[in-house]
Specification:
alpha/beta; seven-stranded mixed beta sheet; 8 helices
Length: 280
């Protein structure tokens, strides 16, 4: 990713997004690790001739990193940022880019709350991939969205999505970092709190820490600040509880994100997460 990379946008897309000087996070993805990441996690499957949904795929750099291993006609990208959808359509005209106008304080502050995922004309997908999507929603929205995506899978289809585990030692992916460099350590004194260390999940919004806040920080019910920074973290043990039958993979390709892999129709769902705790 690159900061304020508005130069990557065509004029038609540039005018659809806020002035990049008004926020501090990334607009246009220049990441080229999505394909090698999922290819390794999924055991190097055959991609040719398979229907692929890149959920939250930004401008479609998955296709650039995939080279000739993916047929553009079989690739769909859904994203809540209309600007990157316009850009992707321009860059990869044979692929399918769909705007999902759902509300997100960070990425689509003028969107519609609780909007359902577009059905892409009823296409059933062999692979549904989501890289760094559920790192920006709360647990309830993640559960809802994962359930909807699984219903879009073809028979024997696979859903794979990434998440941040706050207990992961990032030096395992980036040897230049000090050993023991976890998110909890990066939080400083807040990360030493027993409540935070025991937390199954938490969210950081503009540097405010919310520990297992239930629906308090859900985009679909909360009045967030437009273009705020919003990052969520889930322990791998909690992900196993939320998604019975899932396979959890550690980070690969020098990334910091774990991967949760699910198959077919949803087999289980999480219980209530309505515990409310204050921000730190």
């Amino acid at each position: 990713m690159s900061l304020h990379d508005e130069t990557k946008l065509i004029d038609e897309a540039k005018r659809l997004f806020a002035d990049s000087r008004t926020f501090s996070w990334n607009l246009v993805s220049t990441r080229l690790t999505q394909f090698p990441y999922f290819d390794e996690v999924l055991g190097h499957p055959e991609w040719k001739g398979r229907k692929i949904l890149d959920f939250g795929g930004n401008v479609g750099t998955f296709l650039e990193s995939a080279g000739d291993k993916v047929d553009h006609e079989d690739y769909w990208c859904i994203d809540i940022n209309r600007a990157v959808v316009e850009q992707g359509t321009h860059t990869y005209p044979r692929a399918h880019f769909v705007h999902f106008n759902r509300y997100s304080s960070q990425y689509n502050p003028h969107g519609i709350r609780n909007l359902g995922i577009p059905d892409c004309g009823g296409v059933k997908f062999d692979f549904i991939l989501a890289f760094s999507v559920f790192t920006h929603v709360d647990v309830n929205e993640m559960i809802e969205t994962v359930g909807a995506l699984r219903r879009m899978l073809a028979r024997n289809g696979v859903l794979a999505f990434t998440y941040f585990d706050p207990q992961y030692d990032r030096s395992l992916s980036a040897p230049a970092q000090p050993r023991g460099m976890t998110v909890l350590r990066n939080l400083g004194p807040r990360g030493k709190s027993e409540m935070v260390k025991r937390a199954r999940w938490f969210v950081i919004i503009d540097n405010r820490l919310y520990v297992e806040p239930g629906n308090l920080v859900c985009h679909q019910t909360r009045e967030g600040n437009p273009l705020e920074s919003y990052t969520s973290f889930f322990t791998s043990e909690y992900m196993k509880e939320l998604f019975p039958g899932a396979t959890i993979h550690p980070p690969v390709c020098r990334e910091w994100q774990h991967c949760c892999v699910l198959h077919g129709t949803e087999r289980g769902s999480a219980g209530s997460t309505d515990t409310h705790t204050p921000a730190y």
